[in-house]
């Protein structure tokens, strides 16, 4: 079974993330959403909440798995016996960073491959950190997150 790992903090998951996973689900039988603990980023949502918000987005897609992790994604790949990563690239700056990361991962583990996808139309400016900031100031982010995520964000800021 061909599988892919989509690592990230998903704090919160956005329609850009959802778009990438839905498109990847047409290419892979197994998609693992790997939610990083990411204590350095001081996440808005707990690890458990982030996993649940992701799970609710993809209940209709077979072959979805959800794990949490801390540390290197290449170590996670070995533990899960899945050596392909999905990464989203919104701009040239993302590509430069992601290319460095992909090369480092491959240098540390030659079995690792990275698949880059660009977000769908109208989603290239969406990032979790920007959405958190806008939502914290009362801005409308409903066009950029699934309804259940909007509800969770409103619960944090209202």
Automatic annotation (TrEMBL):
GO terms for molecular function: ATP binding; pantetheine-phosphate adenylyltransferase activity. It catalyses: (R)-4'-phosphopantetheine + ATP + H(+) = 3'-dephospho-CoA + diphosphate. GO terms for cellular component: cytoplasm. Residues 5-133 form the Cytidyltransferase-like domain. Pathway: Cofactor biosynthesis; coenzyme A biosynthesis; CoA from (R)-pantothenate: step 4/5. Gene3D superfamilies: HUPs (3.40.50.620). Keywords: ATP-binding, Coenzyme A biosynthesis, Cytoplasm, Magnesium, Nucleotide-binding, Nucleotidyltransferase, Transferase. The keyword Nucleotide-binding applies. The record marks 17 as: Transition state stabilizer. ATP binds at residues 9-10, 17, 88-90, 98, 123-129. One of its GO terms (biological process) is coenzyme A biosynthetic process. Its cofactor is Mg(2+). It comes from the Bacteria. Its EC number is 2.7.7.3. Its main location: cytoplasm. HAMAP family: PPAT_bact (MF_00151). Reversibly transfers an adenylyl group from ATP to 4'-phosphopantetheine, yielding dephospho-CoA (dPCoA) and pyrophosphate. Belongs to the bacterial CoaD family. Homohexamer. This is Phosphopantetheine adenylyltransferase. It comes from Litorivivens lipolytica.
